[in-house]
Amino acid sequence: MRITINQIKEMKRKGEKITMLTAYDYTTAKLVDEVGVPLILVGDSLGMVVLGYESTIPVSIDEMLHHTKAVVRGAKRAMVVGDMPFMTYHVSTEDALRNAARFIQEGGAQAVKLEGGVTVAEKVKRVVECGIPVMGHIGLTPQSIYQLGGHRVQGKSQEAAARMVEDALALEKAGAFAIVLETVPAQLATLITQRISIPAIGIGAGAGCDGQVQVVNDILGSFTDFVPKHAKQYAKLTETIRDAVTEYHNEVKDR
Ligand code: KIV
Fold first, then answer.
1. Predicted TM-score of the model (pTM)
2. Which of 30, 59, 185, 219 can bridge 47 by disulfide, Cβ–Cβ 3.0-4.6 Å?
3. pLDDT above 90: residue 30
4. Which residue minimizes the CA distance to atom 8 of ligand 1?
């Protein structure tokens, strides 16, 4: 049986920490799923770590769906969350509904994630009302990177912190089943985690959140163009792959 949003919410109530990891392909999703990670995010970080773009902005919904389908084929138990890319939910509620439905119907995901708080709350409400579980994402929201002026810690001033609490409460009220808090001071992330009844899943937001999410390539050390401070490398796959390919290349040349 696949993990449900009720089980994820129950984990917060029981004080059980929640692990979420990204995956973009069948093989990785299968491994992550077999380990027992309950939430797999097909993040639009796909743009950088798989497709070689400079940011998440160019990622299209068709690219996201292509990878979501592969992840769903690999993950039998984990809940698969599809990340709605830039401008697929901003223009209108109709757009948000239509594109969220594509993730569920075509992609096979069980939930979608979208960035923003108060400004997207109405759209979140409608998507949830139509039966599609939504995960929120506040703090450093990479789709707004130009507006934010770079990968900066968010919520540092009192006003910004207060706005972020409002964003979290608005998402909870709109029916989101969980919220990602990205690059937020640990104290603020802990406060938000305590103020909301749904799970807060942090990335670069300290240990006080209900769970943690990481980009799988970051923890495996297989993407080194940009290594975020908050990502611990549990392996150095770049070196392993380079050594293996070199050995193969040399053996072929040596006949
Ligand atoms: O796209 C992504 O991988 C994300 C996570 C970093 C939360 O949004």
1. 0.97
2. 59
3. yes
4. 43
